Amino acid sequence: MTDGKNKNSEGQPSKKSVPGQKSPAKLPQKEQPKPVVPTKSTVAAGSSVSLIKKADEVGEEIETKPLKSFEKKEREKIIQSYERLIFKMVREINNSRQ
Questions:
Q1: What are φ and ψ of residue 31, in 5° steps?
Q2: Taking the C-alpha atoms of 56, 58, 61 and 65 in order, what is their torsion angle to the nearest 10 degrees?
Q3: What's the whole-model pTM score?
Q4: Which residues, including other chains, have CB under 8 Å from residue 46's CB and lie 6 or more apart?
């Protein structure tokens, strides 16, 4: 029987060090957090969080600076920009529902 070759004289498995294993003293280094490797789900989650923040910031900016506070020429430009933004947002929402 070849099962006995990895056991010591007491019949327990021998504790030979394996080259790939680290000693117990080095375990705290291994327990340090690994750098996050971006996967599709983490990239999507990260970009969704940043997109949510940007949308919230735009909403807050609109609330703090109403159109009435700008001159007429500036208002027209801002309104056109809002319309483009709204058009893109509505199109994206509609496409996500299909």
A1: -80, -10
A2: -140
A3: 0.49
A4: 38
